Amino acid sequence: MAIFKGRSFILFPNNEVSSINIFENLIKNNGGKIIEYEHDITNASPDINYGYSHIIGLVNDSYLTLNNNKYEIYENNLLLNEMDLNKRKLWEFVKKNNITLVNISSVSFWLKVKKILINQDNIITITKDPGLHLEEISTSDSCNQSTSECETDIGDIINELVKCNSGSSKNLNSNLNNADNVGEVSSSGTLHGLKNEVIPQYNNEIEEDNKSISASSLARNTNGNELLIKTLDKLSKIHTIRGDEFRSRGYKLAKISVSKYPHKIKSAKEAQEKIPHIGASIAKKIETLLKTGKLPGLEIASKLESRKEYFSSCYGIGPVTAENWDSLQINSLNEALKRFPKIFQHDWSILFGWKYYEDWNKKIPRSECVKHMQIIKEELKLLDDSIECEIQGSFRRNRALCGDIDILFYKKECDDISDLYVVLEMLAIKLYKKKYIKCFLQLSKNINLVFDNEIQTTLQKAGISNNEFRSISLTNRPKLFLGAKLSTTIPEFDTSLYTINPEIDVKLHSEDKYMSSSVQANSVSHALEEYPCRRIDFFICKWSEIGASKLHYTGSGEFNREVRKIAISKGMKLTQHGLYQNDILLESFNEKRIFDLLDIPFIEPPDRQELKF
DNA sequence: CATCTT
DNA sequence: AAGATG
């Protein structure tokens, strides 16, 4: 199908060869043209009526920020530093002629819906960078310190990783044998967001990919340092995934500098002396890289990284368990289940994390959040008209896509949590019986009554015996964690609005698929697009604590931590229950007043991503 | 104590 | 950061 016929595309930036190449091929295979050089444009004269409207600029998602629902790109951001001269010229052209810019993963979405859709959800505006400039970082003293610190540390980390994984050559071999599995995960990881950044595997596959890259793109980087550049890029990405932005940036800067260096690097000494951002530690790596052609531990490190990622992307599995399974060379949930059935029997909610693994790793469009809210509100109205509810979390922060749906319930002038919980439990059970709610993640006496069966069948499916001592909370809680799914029979269901999904899905290993809900769904019908199961949290708060509660549940988590730090620095304590000083409540009802007492200006929810004072 | 929630 | 849950 040639849905891109008559269209031309410019891809930005151009250094991320392995991921961009996928999109280049998708475009070419569907009748589109790729513009590589300025003369590609000047040769093709603009359309008399529509000018350059046949040209679309595509930007790699990792260079974008989401601001008030809209994608933005910062002019001075890494993007410019990632581009070579040809691409910079094209970038100037795009700016001058107001060429439409969209995020690159729209391409896969367009192929899915079989048409090109450009709207508020994927269009990008260019803005001035309010943050740090690369130049500032690289020339300031403080940064030089942090980069050199970074280098010694990463060396240690890699060494440790090698140590704990190459104790025997057997281990190394089993790692290599499992390359296929792990590769499957990382190659299908999403391009959007740090957590799921693709780590290209450093193996023959990549080499083959390079052969198929068009001659023009090959011509770009031929200073003979491709291996170094690729390795530095990989080191940078590993640290991004670990959440270590500083180290990641150290390697990224080194990578960019090496890319710009016009000669083939002959020795580590040469690199350290002549190229900026290369200190003793990176030089050492360059040395081994030049000598042996590879960096011991790197492949292992990235594989470990993606395996850990794979496990902890499952609800109920945290960093400790993921680390444990990782070090035991466990490659799949199924393997873990066979070795530790007790864990799954006790923490049965992991089985639902597994069942909905792929669904729960998908983002939810705002429009869908609203539909969930309608269903819940309608049912609540029948039970108790006086209880109100609002979506908090990323939805209140105005994100276009939300990770889950956080709903806060409260009742005017009511401070009795138990009272509210009773209604909420009834609400949840009714919605479960209506098959809107698919699963509960904790049990109360009443929830167990309706849900126990489902847990038992799920345990059976996993091949483990029932746990007679399943723990059931007897107290009335302030929260309920759920999985819920919109039915396709909802009248106003509209597939074209439903998913602007800028992600390549996080996928289960093939041997883990048998527990997944999507397996059954897919086998029933391919034509019928089903909604994914979504994570929904019900939270209850006292009327007197509604301000503190909203502040807490609106987040972001990072923002909360920063505000709470400020509270501490002023001798106060901030929780979801209120702002305290010496255990005396200062304020909990009025959200704005909490900001006042902390002496910070009120920050609107959309700006509560992170705080930088 | 690990995991989850923001 | 702080709290709830099993």
TrEMBL record:
Keywords: Cytoplasm, DNA damage, DNA repair, DNA-binding, DNA-directed DNA polymerase, Magnesium, Metal-binding, Nucleotidyltransferase, Nucleus, Transferase. It is an enzyme of class 2 (transferase). One of its GO terms (molecular function) is DNA-directed DNA polymerase activity. It is found in: Nucleus. Residues 223-609 form the DNA-directed DNA polymerase X domain. It catalyses: DNA(n) + a 2'-deoxyribonucleoside 5'-triphosphate = DNA(n+1) + diphosphate. The active site is at residue 285. GO terms for biological process: base-excision repair; double-strand break repair via nonhomologous end joining. Its cofactor is Mg(2+). Its EC number is 2.7.7.7. It comes from the Eukaryota. CDD domains: NT_POLXc. GO terms for cellular component: nucleus. Gene3D superfamilies: 5' to 3' exonuclease, C-terminal subdomain, Beta Polymerase, domain 2, DNA polymerase beta, N-terminal domain-like, DNA polymerase, thumb domain. Belongs to the DNA polymerase type-X family. DNA polymerase that functions in several pathways of DNA repair. Involved in base excision repair (BER) responsible for repair of lesions that give rise to abasic (AP) sites in DNA. Also contributes to DNA double-strand break repair by non-homologous end joining and homologous recombination. Has both template-dependent and template-independent (terminal transferase) DNA polymerase activities. Has also a 5'-deoxyribose-5-phosphate lyase (dRP lyase) activity. This is DNA polymerase. The gene is TBLA0D04370.
